[in-house]
Amino acid sequence: MSKFMKKVLLVIALLALIFTASSCAQPEQERARERETTTTEARTFTNQDYEEMLENPEEFEGRQGTVYGRVFNVVEGSHVQIFIDLDDERQFVLRTESAGGVRKGDFVKAQGEFTGIETFTNPLGGEVSAPFVDLRSIEEIDPFDALNFMEPAFKTVEVNKTINQQGFSVTLVRVRFAEERTRILLGVRNGTSEPATLSVLSAMAVQGENQFEAESVFGFPELQSDYQPDTADEGIIFFEPLDADARKARFIIDWSSEDFDIETKPFVFDVNW
To answer: What's the pLDDT tens digit per position in 113-168?
Structure first.
């Protein structure tokens, strides 16, 4: 074999070796990037991590996360406190020099870095342990958007059914089941010529022999009860938890009108899923 052919074969062998090494390295690089992405995604926290953060705070220290809640205390130049549930049992303390214009009662989205669990004395003299977060950003959001994180639904039933009684109409938009409560979204419009009233807190839900009463949730905007002519509103009615496995429910909402020529009767929605 000539020297020229030997050189050609050597070059071919070297190229093959480089190609093989590159092919082997590429999957490993891709796997490394996947591990890095997975690790980055895992190192966060949300409302749903609250209990685990209390039990294993060291697992979350240094993590960046996002929480949603209702502001119940603002100490300008120091911190903002929020409840992340509708029962006002779970709270976060957000350290910040500026509250960003949010006020007590606002529903907010807050982002920051978890620094640990601290125990302090509340105004009533009780000791409270809560996650502390160095706040990076905070903004006021719609209560309905916050609700999806503060009391997440495990089942949603879209209904979109409207019942009209001589110009006064109610639309049952959807039903959502959460562990703490069941809620319905209603759209209401008074198309009559006289004021009318929807009995929001007297609403009932029925499943078989079980009856569920409407609940008032402190701090959350209630569906309007009184309607002047040509006015409308959309809002939520909360109930005690219904059985999502029952596959059906009836919702009953009464109303009245100052037009005594209108014979009113309760709005009844039968929902199957």
So the answer is: 999 999 998 877 889 999 999 999 999 999 999 999 999 999 999 999 999 999 99
The answer to whether 194 touches 231, Cβ cutoff 8 Å, is no
Tokens 């807190």 -> residue = 201
Query: 231: Cβ–Cβ under 8 A, 6 or more apart, which residues?
Result: 189, 190
**Through-space distance between the first and last CA atoms of the chain, rounded to whole angstroms:** 82
Q: What pLDDT digit, counting tens, does each position of 80-115 carry?
A: 999 999 999 999 999 999 998 999 999 999 999 999
Looking at the DSSP bridge assignments, the partners of residue 24 are none
Global pTM exceeds 0.90: no
Amino acid occupying residue 131: P
Spatial contact of 220 and 147, defined as CB atoms under 8 Å apart: yes
Please identify which residue in the block is written with the tokens 């979204």. Answer: 185
Measured over the CA atoms of residue 16, residue 18, residue 24 and residue 27, the dihedral's sign is: negative
Here the tokens at position 3 are 């020297």
β-pairing, 210-215 vs 255-257, is unpaired
Angle CA 240–244–250, to nearest 5: 65
Classify strands 127-140 and 91-95 as parallel, antiparallel or unpaired.
parallel
Quickly count: other Cβ atoms within 10 Å of residue 89's Cβ: 9
Tokens of 206: 């029925």
Q: Which two tokens stand for residue 193?
A: 């010529």
pLDDT tens string 162-207:
999 999 999 999 999 999 999 999 999 999 999 999 999 999 999 9
Counting Cα atoms < 13 Å in the Cβ hemisphere of 191 gives 11
Kindly state the tokens that stand for 249.
């429910």
Neighbouring CB atoms inside 10 A of 55's CB total: 9
